[in-house]
Amino acid sequence: VQLVESGGGLVQPGGSLRLSCAAFGFTFSNSAMGWFRQAPGKEREFVGSISWSGAITYYADSMKGRFAISRDNAKNMVYLQMNSLKPEDTAVYYCKARANVGGSWYDYWGQGTQVTVSS
Q1: Which residue among 13, 34, 68, 106 has the highest number of C-beta atoms inside a 10 angstrom radius?
Q2: What is the per-residue pLDDT across 3-23, written as a single tens digit (0 to 9) for each?
Q3: Rounded to whole angstroms, how far apart are CA atoms 115 and 113?
Q4: In whole angstroms, what is the distance from residue 64 CA to residue 107 CA?
């Protein structure tokens, strides 16, 4: 199982970024996916999640209306569209999969991608 995030970078306040997460080694279309982030000196926090079908999404309160998660099961990809970015959104963003491997459910994490919001 492997998750590979991409799309991070430096963006000005008010700007947008789209993060991508490519999934390998498990049945992606059966798996709920999530995004988390960790700022320096802080604990990792939940950003949002999406159901296996894409029909249901959840977001942390501070991200509602600004962030949107989507997925493409044909491409084994999940995305995080981030708009109206603020300096406090600066963090490493991680993709997480809840995957069924060998009949049991496990959580897998990507290596993270850095997002820096600064002028």
Answers
A1: 34
A2: 999 999 999 999 999 999 999
A3: 7
A4: 24
